[in-house]
Amino acid sequence: MGSIDRRLRACYSGVQATLPPPGSANLRQLELFLKVRANGMPLDGPSIRR
Predict the structure, then answer these.
(1) What string of pLDDT tens digits covers the 50 residues of the chain?
(2) What is the model's pTM?
(3) Which candidate in 24, 39, 46, 50 could, as Cys together with 20 as Cys, close a disulfide (CB 3.0–4.6 Å)?
């Protein structure tokens, strides 16, 4: 599992968007929104592939 910061950077890269500077207000607000929205949800991860 990676940090939410790493996941957001990968998402921005995946859609070829300009990444805001580290610590920017937009990124902090997005992280807070995602954390509040996920509060109480069960932890889930990808299954193992062989």
Answers:
(1) 678 888 888 898 899 999 888 888 988 999 899 889 888 888 777 777 66
(2) 0.64
(3) 24
